[in-house]
Amino acid sequence: xxxxxxxxxxxxxxxxxxxxxxxxxxxxxxxxxxxxxxxxxxxxxxxxxxxxxxxxxxxxxxxxxxxxxxxxxxxxxxxxxxxxxxxxxxxxxxxxxxxxxxxxxxxxxxxxxxxxxxxxxxxxxxxxxxxxxxxxxxxxxxxxxxxxxxxxxxxxxxxxxxxxxxxxxxxxxxxxxxxxxxxxxxxxxxxxxxxxxxxxxxxxxxxxxxxxxxxxxxxxxxxxxxxxxxxxxxxxxxxxxxxxxxxx
Length: 248
Known about the structure:
Elements: E1 2-5, E2 8-11, H1 12-31, H2 40-65, H3 77-100, H4 105-125, H5 129-140, H6 143-154, H7 162-200, H8 210-247
Antiparallel strand pairs: 1-2
Helix pairs in contact: 1-2, 1-3, 2-3, 2-5, 2-6, 3-4, 4-8, 5-7, 6-7, 7-8
């Protein structure tokens, strides 16, 4: 699918990639220019994540509700547009990690694996977007809260902003942790289980090769497991700090 500007038809993916790259550069060079060099890249990454997360949830929801839901159905034009939108975001953020955090193999690996799922769904088989966009909604619905929490956390050690940043971080932590736990720890695994069960019953036979849906299963299952471990460790740290405050 492409977007028509005047008499020129521009493919979605290059257009969206240019959009996210522009937002990143504006964030890095203008919006966060006075932030410490150490946290400017992270803040810029958060900004493009904000521009991706909630819009992706809205666009994906509209694309799913406008057609019959099936884990193995053919992709619609609107679903492919959402896939292009997310591919563009992850490509931009992948470049960010390669440039500024080349040793962060966990996030680089996560982005590469996510791109594999999106790109194969979009271009290789052109089926299964309902499953992938359902997972995308569950992954990004916490994005706005998480990015606000991350930005506040990044500013906690800044002498000028420390007090406000600490307050915001402490205020956001419990509701964010709770929201994230429900989505990633309950709703995500439930949806994932239904997707795997559908494919295991052979409902994708002839349209999504077994090796591909198994690959999707490994990628998504690993991502869900890592997310649960991450939020579990955050809860442990939060309760530990509360206990230390009571003791002191």
